[in-house]
Design a protein that fits this description.
This protein is an all-alpha fold. It is 72% helix and 2% strand.
C-alpha cells in the first residue's frame, strides 16, 4: 500500500516519478529554508524560543526523501533505505575508509603543521583524553545530526535518480551545486556574490563559491564510495559525521584550522582530490552503478518488505 496524500494523489505521484529530482529539490528547500526563515523571524521578534526547532532545518533532505519514497515506492522503497543504512558486512573496507577519509586528511595537515612549526597555537593537547571522549560522542551524535538528516535525501534519493539520466561525474557536479545552495541561509542570498575573506580556504571568495570549491571534491569522493558499495547509506552517514566531527575537533584541540598554513594545505588537498576522484568517477561504468529498482527486485520478493528483511539479515 502506498501513502495516500490527497484525492489527486495519482496525478501527484505521477509527477514525482517523472520529475523526482525537481520534486525533491522543491520540498527540501521548502522545508529547510522555511524553518530557517520562521526561526529567524520568531527570534528577532520574541527572542530565542524555548525549543530550538531551528535544528529541524537540517532534516529537510530526510523529510523530503521519506515523503517521496513513501508516495512513489511505498514500503518496498522504505525497506531499501533501511537496508542501505544497516547492511555492512559486504562493504567493511569501504565503510571504514568512509569513516576515516576526512579525519586522516585533517590529521595529516595538522601533523605536518606540528613538524613545520614545532608547536600548536592555542591548543588544549593537555586535555587530550577528555577531548577524545568528546570526539566519540560528537561523532555518534553526528550520525543522526548530519548523517541521517541529510544522506537519506542526497544519496538515498537524489544521487540514484540523477545517475539514471546523467553520467556519474555530471550527477556529482549537479549535486555539488544544489547542496551548496541548500547550505546557504536564505537571509544571506543578497550577499551570495560578494567576495569576503574565506573561512576555510586561503583567499577571498563569495560564500557560494567557497562552499562549491569545498563541496565538489568531497561529493566526488562520496559518489565513488557510494557506487563502490552498491549504495551504502551507512558509509555515507559515517563519512558525513566524521567529516564535520574531525574538523571541529581538530579546531578545538589544536587550534590550527584558521591558520594560513592549514587553509593553504586544505586548498591544495582539495585540488588534488578533485583531479584524482574526477578521473575515478569518470571511469566508473554505468552498468556497475547501483540502481534502486534492482535492489527492490532482489530484496523484496512479492512486495513483503519484512519478509525480505528476515531473509537477508545483517
Amino acid at each position: 500500500m502506498k501513502i495516500m496524500i490527497s484525492p489527486y494523489s495519482t496525478i501527484l505521484i505521477g509527477f514525482f516519478k517523472k520529475y523526482p529530482v525537481l520534486a525533491y529539490c522543491f520540498f527540501t528547500f521548502l522545508v529547510t529554508w522555511g524553518i530557517k526563515v520562521l526561526y529567524a523571524s520568531i527570534t528577532m521578534q520574541y527572542g530565542m524560543p524555548a525549543i530550538n526547532f531551528g535544528l529541524l532545518a537540517s532534516f529537510g533532505p530526510f523529510i523530503s526523501a521519506i515523503f517521496l519514497i513513501g508516495t512513489t515506492e511505498g514500503k518496498e522503497g522504505l525497506g531499501v533505505i533501511y537496508r542501505s543504512m544497516t547492511v555492512w558486512r559486504d562493504n567493511v573496507g569501504w565503510i571504514v575508509l568512509a569513516a576515516l577519509f576526512e579525519p586522516i586528511l585533517f590529521f595529516s595537515i595538522t601533523f605536518v603543521y606540528r613538524l613545520y612549526y614545532g608547536t600548536f597555537p592555542e591548543s588544549t593537547v593537555g586535555a587530550l583524553f577528555p577531548s577524545i571522549i568528546s570526539y566519540i560522542f560528537t561523532f555518534v551524535f553526528g550520525i543522526i545530526r548530519w548523517g541521517l538528516s541529510e544522506e537519506i535525501g542526497w544519496r538515498g534519493w537524489m544521487l540514484p535518480k540523477l545517475q539514471e539520466k546523467f553520467s556519474t561525474f555530471n550527477a556529482s557536479l549537479i549535486m555539488s551545486v544544489v547542496i551548496t545552495l541548500w547550505h546557504i541561509h536564505p537571509n544571506s542570498l543578497p550577499m551570495i556574490a560578494v567576495s569576503k575573506e574565506s573561512e576555510y580556504l586561503i583567499g577571498f571568495f563569495p560564500e557560494a563559491v567557497e562552499r562549491l570549491i569545498i563541496s565538489i571534491p568531497f561529493i566526488l569522493v562520496m559518489t565513488y564510495i557510494y557506487n563502490k558499495t552498491n549504495g551504502s547509506l551507512l558509509a555515507m552517514m559515517l563519512f558525513h559525521s566524521a567529516s564535520n566531527t574531525s574538523y571541529f575537533w581538530i579546531d578545538e584541540t589544536f587550534g590550527v584550522v584558521k591558520s594560513d598554513f592549514f587553509r593553504i594545505s586544505f586548498l591544495g588537498a582539495i585540488i588534488i582530490l578533485t583531479v584524482v576522484f574526477s578521473l575515478l568517477v569518470i571511469k566508473q561504468k554505468k552498468k556497475a552503478i547501483f540502481r534502486r529498482h534492482n535492489k527492490l527486485r532482489n530484496y523484496f520478493e512479492e512486495g513483503n518488505v519484512f519478509h525480505a528483511m528476515c531473509m537477508h539479515p545483517n
